[in-house]
Specification:
about 725 residues; single chain; alpha+beta; 6-stranded antiparallel sheet; globular
């Protein structure tokens, strides 16, 4: 047996998505990192051992332009490229390779941290046992990140924490119980089946549950074609201690799985003769345990009111999603949901311990009430929290700051570091004085200034209200629609304000117009709306129901535009009212329309501003490639600048809902909005343009080019997209030595 000491700038305990992103983020900031994982694979609940979908701010398409960027975004996009079919083992490889690509990370798999040396509110070391190799390893760092989920390290260090459900009176949360209790969300075990093509017998084990004796068949969806996380409701243990009783919970969950499989195979209710059980989990996927207390406890109110924290470092968008403590045996629905109107913010003050001065935390153990935890717990949100912690730990350390000092006294250095890292945060403007692009003027070969989509792909009768999100900069001075009318009719058009830049719902009525429509087909009609907001943003245009009128659809849509239809929800639907009422339609497509002059796609968007949709698309779009076949965008400085790094951020279409395992299949492996091929060129004064970088077969959002160039101008020339008809660039950033 060996006893080893490992000394790094940061020790991350937990190799789920929060821990992975924390380690990568810190390493990219220059820190050395020990990433300690107690399983043989990375990924936590998303790994091939457990196989839970990586859900996040998109909420399976309920929220819009919401997919995470940053490191989690990289993982989504890379998995889409390598693993579009959602193979769990290929997802493991995506994660492993992302960690191994960072030379400053030392990875310790199969290493279970069991002891913590802490005193005077500070962790001095943690010690783990590496199974198989029989090594006792002591990890010594100035700071630690507990990304373990269950929070054992913070607990052993004496960090303040809570478990279970707080009383309603504590935070005045309407979804909290009147009386506090120790109930949590339960754990889950999943299974996969496959069709062998020939009859297969299944003899259930003696311990399999007879689910006909339970409420499961009547209260849960069982189908022979479902697999994996479609059975998320196989959950139990919420009324127990999910750690102390982990073995009992695992045995019960496996008994339930075999009982469900017996029901599918042998009840005679399913066409399952040729099906066999391919895989069943042996590690319960835990949802909830300890939640540490930081300087801010995120609550239901923060989520639903979308509180704009000054120290915001991440965002979420999943519903507040709570489950009955009885889990699979409950006669209640398996979950209840309350969506915010759009994405909400999470502050840095919720990501460090209030009483252990060198302890960060990320994942499901952050400082949040039980109710707010119901949304922050999903893994893509945990991942962006991990990235924030990794960046924060490095920034605080190199500036000699405690976590509290960074969050409350010097947060501007954190904000700039996150912006430069292209981290996943909302509403943060690039004001970094190190970005030399902010000193440049921007020109382009063309810009989409009078956008229109004119080629019809069919018609959509206005059997219900239809809404569309329209970017407005600086004003919406009328629009045109292509319509059919069975006979003379009147189309009522309303304008609504979404109220916040990250919202895409008609939340506040503004104005309406009545437009006469004469009988006929394929007629362009003028809609005389006049909307002049105080600042650029989106407006929701609602076409009111009129079955006598049909609008023409198109196979494409303008950047930043999406479309909805109003519907009457079924009485038993479990979504909150605003999302039950508006259903997203025409994905990757839209309506035939013409907009007036706009600056929503201006070249100036690539410097300063935001790096993702926020009150508009926040990108430069060229004109159609048929008119501008090799579009370019250029930065020009009044005097020469020394360039050492050029960062190109492209349009990864964050409206597209990607996922790690086979929840759904997108029709492409590379996002069409990304540039496929581009050239970077530089020149100094009147000299000729010189190529300094060429990128081909690109499938990444963010590309960093390390150069050594003196220039008065920099040009990006787009030679090929991955499918879109226009070139899109989100941001061009340049940094000196």
């Amino acid at each position: 047996m060996q006893q080893l000491d490992v000394r790094t700038d940061l020790t991350v305990i937990g190799g789920g998505l929060a821990g992975i992103c924390a380690a990568i983020a810190a390493a990219r900031q220059g820190s050395t990192v020990a990433l300690v994982q107690n399983r043989p694979v990375l990924g936590g609940n998303s790994s091939s051992e457990v196989r839970v979908w990586v859900c996040g701010a998109t909420a399976h398409g309920v929220q819009h332009f919401a997919r995470e960027t940053g490191i989690m975004g990289e993982l989504f996009v890379e998995n889409q490229y390598r693993n579009p079919e959602g193979n769990p083992y290929y997802w493991d490889l995506v994660l492993l390779e992302a960690v191994r690509a960072e030379p400053r990370i030392s990875l310790f798999l199969n290493t279970d941290v069991r002891t913590v040396d802490a005193a005077d509110g500070m962790i001095r070391s943690v010690t783990g046992w590496q199974m198989g190799s029989e090594k006792e390893i002591r990890f010594v760092s100035p700071v630690y990140a507990d990304c373990s989920g269950d929070g054992l390290v913070g607990y052993l260090a004496g960090a303040d924490f809570t478990t279970g459900r707080e009383p309603r009176s504590l935070y005045d949360e309407s979804w909290a119980p009147e009386v506090p209790d120790g109930n949590t969300l339960g754990s889950t075990i999943l299974f996969y089946s496959k069709d062998t093509g020939s009859p297969v017998r299944f003899v259930p084990p003696s311990f399999a549950r007879d689910i006909d004796e339970t409420a499961i068949p009547s209260r849960r969806i069982i189908r022979s074609d479902l697999n994996g996380c479609a059975y998320w409701w196989i959950e139990w243990g919420g009324e127990l201690d999910v750690v102390d009783d982990n073995e009992r919970i695992r045995d019960e969950l496996q008994a339930v799985v075999y009982g469900i499989w017996d029901y599918i195979k042998n009840s005679g209710r399913f066409d399952a003769e040729t099906l066999t059980l391919e895989w069943i989990g042996s590690v319960p996927g835990k949802r909830e345990y300890r939640r540490f207390l930081g300087d801010h406890v995120l609550t239901q109110h923060d989520v639903l009111r979308q509180t704009l924290f000054e120290d915001r470092v991440a965002f979420g968008g999943w519903s507040i999603d709570l489950h009955p403590p009885g889990g699979v045996y409950s006669s209640e629905r398996g979950s209840k949901h309350w969506h915010p109107d759009g994405n909400y913010h999470i502050p840095l003050r919720s990501l460090y311990s209030r009483n252990v001065s060198n302890l960060w935390m990320a994942g499901r153990n952050i400082s949040a009430s039980h109710v707010a935890f119901g949304t922050t717990r999903v893994m893509a949100t945990c991942a962006v929290l991990g990235e924030a912690v990794g960046i924060a730990s490095a920034v605080a350390s190199r500036n000699g700051l405690s976590p509290r000092e960074l969050a409350t006294e010097r947060f501007e250095v954190m904000r700039r570091a996150m912006q430069r890292a292209d981290a996943s945060v909302l509403g943060v403007v690039d004001e970094d004085p190190a970005n030399l692009a902010l000193q440049a003027t921007v020109t382009a070969s063309s810009t989409l200034t009078c956008p229109a989509v004119e080629v019809s792909s069919g018609t959509l009768p206005l059997d219900s209200d239809v809404a569309m999100v329209v970017p407005v900069d600086p004003a919406l001075d009328g629009l045109q629609l292509l319509v059919d009318a069975a006979h003379d009719a009147v189309l009522t058009v309303e304008l609504h304000d979404p109220l916040k830049p990250q919202n895409y719902l008609p939340l506040a009525y503004v104005d309406s117009r009545s437009v006469p429509v004469t009988a006929g087909e394929k007629r362009w009609i003028d809609v005389p709306v006049d909307y002049r907001p105080d600042r650029p943003g989106n407006v929701i245009v609602v076409l009111k129901q009129n079955p006598d009128i049909s609008v023409h659809t198109a196979a494409t849509a303008l950047p930043g535009m999406i479309f909805f239809a109003h519907r009457d929800p079924a009485p038993d639907e479990q979504w909150t009212e605003q999302f039950r009422s508006w259903k997203h339609i025409l994905p990757r497509a839209g309506l035939c329309l013409r907009l007036g002059d706009t600056s929503a796609y201006a070249a100036s968007n690539v410097i300063g501003g935001y790096s993702r949709p926020y009150g508009g698309p926040q990108l430069w779009s060229s004109e159609d490639l048929a008119w501008d076949p090799e579009p370019w965008i250029q930065l020009t400085w009044p005097t020469p600048v020394e360039l050492a790094e050029i960062v190109v951020i492209l349009d990864a279409d964050v409206e597209e809902d990607l996922i790690n395992l086979h929840h759904h299949r997108t029709p492409f492996d590379v996002l069409p909005t990304l540039l496929n091929t581009y050239i970077l060129e530089a020149r100094n004064g009147s000299a000729d343009w010189q190529p300094i970088a060429t990128v081909e077969a690109n499938h990444h959002r963010t590309n960093r080019h390390h150069v050594s160039v003196t220039a008065t101008a920099l040009r990006l020339k787009a030679l090929k997209t991955n499918g879109t008809r226009r070139a899109h660039v989100v941001s061009l950033r340049t940094y000196g030595t």
